[in-house]
Fold this protein.
Amino acid sequence: MADQPTAMERFIQGILPENPTYRQLLGLCPTLAVTNGLNQALTMAGAVLFVLFCANVMISLIRDLLKPHLRIVIFTLVIAAFVTVADRFLAAYLYQMSKTLGPYIPLIIVNCIIICRCEVCASKQGVVAAGADAIGQSLGFGLGLSSIAAVREILGTGALFGIKVLPAVWPDWVIMVLPPGAFLTFGILLGAVNWYSARPSKATRTN
Amino acid sequence: MNATLRDNNIVQAWLVLLLAVCFGGMLAGVQLALGPKIELNKVNETREKVPELVLGAQAAQAGAPLAVEPLTVSVEKPAKTVRYSVYEAKKDGALAGWVVKTAGQGYADRIEVLIGLAPDAGSLTGLFVLDQKETPGLGNKIVTDEWRGQFVGKAVDRPLAAVKGGAKGGSEIDAITGATISSHAVTSIINTAVADLRQPLAEKARGN
Amino acid sequence: MAEITQTMDSADRPAAPVLHVAPSPHLAHQALTTRRMMLDVVIALVPVVAMALVVFRGYAVKQLVICVLGCLAAEALFTRMRGRTLPLKDCSALVTGIILALSLPGPAPWYVGAIAAFVAIGIGKVLFGGVGMNIFNPAMVGRAFVMIAFASAMAASGYQDAASGVDAVTQATPMDLFKLTGQVTPLGPMFLGLTNGSLGETSALACLVGGIFLCVRRTASWEIPAGILGMVALMAGLAQWADPASGWTVWHHLCGGSLLFGAFFIATDPVSSPLTPKGKAIFGVGVGFFIMLLRLFSGYPEGVMFAVLLMNGITPLINRWCIPKPLGLR
């Protein structure tokens, strides 16, 4: 396992170079569904952080016991357990938010980011690397969600975190908080990210 | 013997089974700890609105003590029996009003509302929209204070009607511009519930 | 795929000769270029614009200026960002701007037209690769965006302004009036265009004059408006037969709303409609079907925009169905 990335590399990679939203295009269901406000987006990212961290650490601890043909079953079992905990916890302490997020918290179970990290990292590396990976990926996911949510919320309601920031004359672009707004915003931001990273850098141009 | 044991599906899956049992226990614990709180949240969501709907926002802010009693009222209709969940609000032992939870079809999806009624069920004391998925920017204005405020104090001896371009008092409600269907939906939800419940609630009030 | 590589190549080699690919009919007019077709459309729009100016006066001027300038600015900006030159010469942005303006309600605030113009050109056209590459009619993409974004400015109430000095704007549109209250507007004003509505849609006469000019010039294919009008007449006939008491006849359906404007100027967009005559007829019938479906059974009083966008989406499929067989092939 000498060629596996270190914990620090895992952490850094998750945030930008392998950003789950813009680079891996994983977890798009919540990305499109709960980004009509920053509050929802960050709660979602928090729930994913909790689930991913617990699942990664847990899988990493038992990685030597995994059998290849049963590993997905175990991943799913572990993820489902922690997702249920997160769901109940939100319903108990953030009831309104859990109503707003609706089915998307339980749906973290089928979120590909988590099963992907379990497969790629946690089932092969130690606890520290797996934990760092989970935090990095979750931060990257949170960054992806909140960037989309910020654009949608400010255009759609003139507010950020539910607090009005634009003057009252701002005409709310209702479409931005509706599903089409999610697709448009995500597409345009994804295009912008690709355009930015595809620009020939100075180093390559001189070659 | 050893080989057959190793190939056995159950034995291979020992880790799955063990984890399932552990997680089952863990989730049971979580449910035991948090279940009552979640149930309470659900009840409170409705119950918290009762003072405002019966007494009005200002009196509710002042913290008037209200005793709220949930009950179910069944109404016999020609085809079926309809059950309403009703909250009875008492202030210092005297009946202060009723809050009825009901729902009906809106423009986009079901609209769920709480209706505040005076003790004799003869007039409205408030309206609150619990859940709706009407068009943002048009139909979802049914949740605004200004629009809901029109319902306060309306007598319900005649059915309410949502009209376009300026309500002329009486049983008329100003329909939201561009969202006539949503406005009609809310008034008809109220009309149905009130028509069903006026009699039984008024009787209950006299009985108290 | 081949097309895309071609265009990319041509971007790299600026001096490469431009092979002009335009839909049929090629044979009748060898000189048929995008610019020429677009100018034809502009000429055909003259009676419609004139009628809009007469009926809606200041409102029409305002929306036309905003939408045309918005579309030209957006086209210039976005093509520049893509590193292309001479974006405005083919006049397609001008046509998109005029059609967009004519499809908006007069009293809509300035930002509605401006945003619609940028969305029409940016999301409707440039994102797909510019002129000739777009799947959906750009003007209708822009209109759909603002219709959902600013629902109150674009719904029934957005058309009406009781305090307005322009007569037409003080009334409800005939479609809304019928949908909401069952009142029937007389056919005369609807035909001439003295009623309220989107700027270009009110006058059936102006749309017919411009539309027939387009068909005669073969800039627009007659199959599309024929399919739309035929299907609408058929379904409106059924509706009238089912409910004769309503007073809303086939003629009301044909003259009302943006049907004629849509049939002649929007649905006939050569880029987003099928290529073969048979495909065009199918396209027209489909648009007509959806228009009537939306008019009769949806919450909206009018359905031309959504019908055209829906059928635009099916156009690639229609093109595959209607590949003409080479002579002699069985």
Remarks:
- The interface with chain B takes residues 62, 65-67, 70, 73-74, 77-78, 80-81, 84-85, 88-89, 91-93, 95, 172, 174, 177-178 of chain A (CB under 8 Å).
- The longest helix of chain A spans residues 127-157.
- The mean pLDDT of chain A is 87.
- Residues 71 and 119 of chain A are 9 Å apart (CA to CA).
